[in-house]
Amino acid sequence: MNKLVKMVKCDKKLATPRRRLSARNTGTISKVVKVLTQPIASTAPCIQRATNMTVVVRVRPPNSKERDQNSRTVVKVVGDQLLIFDPKEEEQPFFYHGVKQKDFLKRGNKELKFMFDRVCGNSSTNSEVYTYSTKSLVDTLMNGYNCSVFAYGATGAGKTYTMIGTEEFPGITFLTMKDLFSRKEELSSEREFELMLTYVEIYNEVVKDLLCPGGQPLYLREDSKYGVIISGVKVHKIANPNDLFLLLEQGNKRRTQHLTDANAESSRSHAVFQVYIHMTSKTTREVSTAKLSMIDLAGSERGSATGYVGPRFKEGANINRSLLALGNCINSLINGKNHIPYRDSKLTRLLKDSLGGNCHTVMIANVSPSSLSYEETYNTLKYANRAKSIKSNVKKNIVNTDLHIEQYIKLVSDLQTENATLKAEVDRLRHDNQPVQSDSGSQVNALTSENAMLTNENAALANENATLKREIEILNMTINALKIEKGEGDGLCAVKIGQESKEVSMEVCKSPVKPSISVEFTELVVEQKEAMKRIFELEQSILLLKGQLDEDLNRKTVNIIKNHETRKKLLEKFDKDEKEVQKQIQELRIARTRAENKLWNLLMASPELSREYERFVSDKERMEFQYKSELTQIENHMLLKKLSSFQTTNKKHRADSAVTPGTSLSGKSQTKPKRILQDSKNSGVNSTFVMDKDAAKTQTKTKTRQIAVKGYKTRVSKRFGPISTAGGKENNHQVRKFEAKKPVKRNWI
Ligand SMILES: Nc1ncnc2c1ncn2[C@@H]1O[C@H](COP(=O)(O)OP(=O)(O)OP(=O)(O)O)[C@@H](O)[C@H]1O
């Protein structure tokens, strides 16, 4: 990021001419260009950068003609970046009669200084030119930026030689491709590459494919994604650079060439060699493209100088027109005009994205050193000098921007890896640090043991202190006792109860006081001691009793709890049983209701059956009543029997009773038995007559049956209307029907 900021600052500095000049003077421009074309961090892929066109001037060696005519050298190379056009010549003094004469016919030298990014002298090789002009573009291309190189110059200035070269000295096109391939190999572990190339010429404003013999004229088209493209051009894929040189040679042979005054094999067309690079990152799958355009322009020439007519004249005119259009575009770009006349010629249309657009551009201006090409060289130098000012805004061609997320994922993954490494490092350091910690641990242990020792010492001293205090106390008591003896004391002896008092007594006994006092004191102490002993014994017995009581209480509590639990369990079981019984009752009720309903339906369906049923019911009731009466009599008889036996056994207790149970009960029992018979209120004695269990049970059963029979009767009577038990029936169907609709109310217990 800092690098990027520096680069932008650097660019800003170069924007003003003075600074640019100073940069050139100090030789920093090449460094700047180098920095600008260095690889950029992939984390800032779409950033735009303003960059100047790189202009390199190459001066070719004088050819045989130039040498033959002994022409003057009009280009003097001074250093790597400076050249002087039409330098001052050393004057050959001419003396006439010993007086130095001035040559009035001689034209004054221009002595024009030109500074470029690089000036290659006539001894420079293609390889050197490549190093100073195009080599840096390889990395720029690999970073996804478009690049273009075009060779400009007059006829025979050495453009084709620079671009294509010979087999012995291959030109920069081949050298660039060679480097591109080696760079591709270097990056093959990171990226997948696809290289495609085209080679076309523009001759008389017609575009032709140089790699496809007999091809049709091609048309230029502008694509929003790839910029200017040549429609219908054959795209070639090459595996290695050696194939390329053959391909270039073949294409160049197909190029339109004619003999000119300046060049035996003058190229009469503009040759455009383009390489499309498609790169896919193996880690992030980011796809970026780059286009390299290498243009060998047709030679600029003066029409008047050639002296051609006809087709050659037209050819020259087209070349000049296209070069003029190129010049106009350059001027417009320099002046910062909004409209750049790219459409004025096929050449400028094709170079639209190679001039000042999204492209790093390198211009190689080829010049002849000879004065025979004075005008052409001068024009070329002026042209190149102006081209230096062209600025282009370059940006990286990212095809798939969504893949940036993958970059971030990779970044996160890298950071996580780094984090893991750092964690491991921290762990390692912790591990290394452990002996130090154990040392400090041992120090702590030593201090702890020392502290324990000191604490023990302190406790011993505290004991000693307490002993001394007790001794002082004993001494005070002794003093008090002596005072009492003398009659000086307050009559109070600070005798303590308990252990200390024993010690006191002992000490006192030992003390050198008078015998009478000590004996009395000793007696008191002994008495007190016995009292204490008695108290202690009592306390012990209290404690014992308390313990017994507690134990008893606990046992009882446990029993109570146990009983409670048993009761609880029984209650629970009872509840459960009750629920079960209730459930069974409910089920039985449901079953009975169903049976009744079934019966009812049957009765409703058949009046015969109904009548039969009524008869059956009345018979049943009669029989039941009969049975019940007999049963009641038997029961009453048995009850009376039991009662009489009960009376016999409890005769003594019933002596005061005014009631004669046998008499009174016998009368009542014939009609209805009673469970409880209370004694007469008149007797004034609160005695209660209770039946024995069996009698009460029998009586309860009888009662239950009576009620059950009654309930049944009620139900039947409600259903079928009034039924006479004596056999008289009121077979009223209307009433029966009405009653049937009402919900049956049962009086079951
Ligand atoms: N640097 C150089 N060293 C040696 N010979 C050179 C050099 N430059 C050019 N020549 C020679 O000069 C002659 C003309 O060169 P070249 O064909 O490259 O010129 P040109 O600019 O392409 O001309 P045109 O525009 O007519 O095609 C060629 O024979 C070439 O070998």
From TrEMBL:
Residues 650-684, 720-749 are annotated as: Disordered. Residues 660-670 have a biased composition (Polar residues). One of its GO terms (molecular function) is microtubule binding. GO terms for biological process: microtubule-based movement. It is found in: Cytoplasm, Cytoskeleton. InterPro entries: Kinesin-like_fam, Kinesin_motor_CS, Kinesin_motor_dom, Kinesin_motor_dom_sf, P-loop_NTPase. Keywords: ATP-binding, Coiled coil, Cytoplasm, Cytoskeleton, Microtubule, Motor protein, Nucleotide-binding. Pfam families: Kinesin. GO terms for cellular component: microtubule. Residues 730-742 have a biased composition (Basic and acidic residues). ATP binds at G153, A154, T155, G156, A157, G158, K159, T160. Its main location: cytoplasm. It comes from the Eukaryota. This is Kinesin-like protein. The gene is LOC115890154.
